[in-house]
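Report of the visiting student (M.T.), summer placement. My assignment was to run the structure pipeline on a short list of targets and document each run. The first record concerns ADP-ribosylhydrolase ARH1.
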Amino acid sequence: MAQAASRRSHPTRPPGGGGDGGGMFGVPGGNPAPRASDSKAIEAKVWDYARDGKFDKVFQYLAHYPDLISLQGRSGYNLLHQAAYHGIDSQRLRRLTSAGGERITLELLQSRSKHGDPGGRPADVAEAQGHRDVAAALRQMEAELTRVAVGKPRAVEAPAHAPGGRSVSASHGLASKAHAGEAAAQDPSGRVVAVLLLSAVGDAIGFRGGEWEFNEHGKVIEAQMRKLGGALALVPSRETGWPVSDDTVQHLATLRAIIDARAVLPKSSHDMSGLDQLMGQMARWHVRSWSDMGGRAPGKRCERGVRALSQPGARWDTAVPYEAVDKIPGCGAAMRAMGIGVVYH
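After the run finished, the structure tokens were exported:
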């Protein structure tokens, strides 16, 4: 009855169960969490925007509260159900499905509404509303993410051109290299895991809580290392005062962004939509990584960039204005790029 009453009050709205959220609410990037009453108000507002098809407004909130991607109404509708009902365009659909990472996206795609009208999975809702292209896109995405979840190779379309504009074949393109990286990552004893672990160990040793990273005298470091029993005797860890530095924290953020955006990675240097999705995830993960900088020494320009990206409505491509300088003051971008090499090696 409540569902029917809701539709009578708002005849143009799809069934969504009102403004009840799923109760999940997280604030990335170290921002203070809102009070419970504020959380419910924000959830209700986002749900109303989705129910009315105002997804540009929804994206503004997801940029700062990504856990809201898991909102669900009483009918069992989630944000993908609402998007399917309205038949949003492919660019917005890709943006929405990349907001929560692969695992959460697959759960949302497979979620069935309990008594929504039309009911079923998001793809079923799109089909019932006559949005066949949206239904097909959702089903293809669900199939691909299911294959990834069970560890089977996922078909990746080879890009027509490499980022530098050169033509590449399917066997040597970025897609095939990313595919090889994915296969290696699925094996715990594979080279990818070894690279990540050895890099973290080397970073922690070289950093040594800031004591060695900023020591310009190699012989002093060598003498101290010998007193500790040599390189093979070192066991770096946060507990012993040898944490990894900001470099490892941030290159892992880069890798996480690539993994979460894997379904929408740019297919060529001209795929601006894919690039926007990927870099949106980059911004999100690097902002989140800043809450793990205690005891580390991140660069000032990196901090400036993260603070700018943390502002409401900030975009990855305009948050920090381009600044032409004669001498580059740091190497922050290069130090955060290892995740890219891991995927495309």
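Confidence is low (pLDDT under 50) at residues 1-36, 152-186. The CA atoms of residues 191 and 226 lie 30 Å apart. I thank the supervising group for their guidance throughout the placement.
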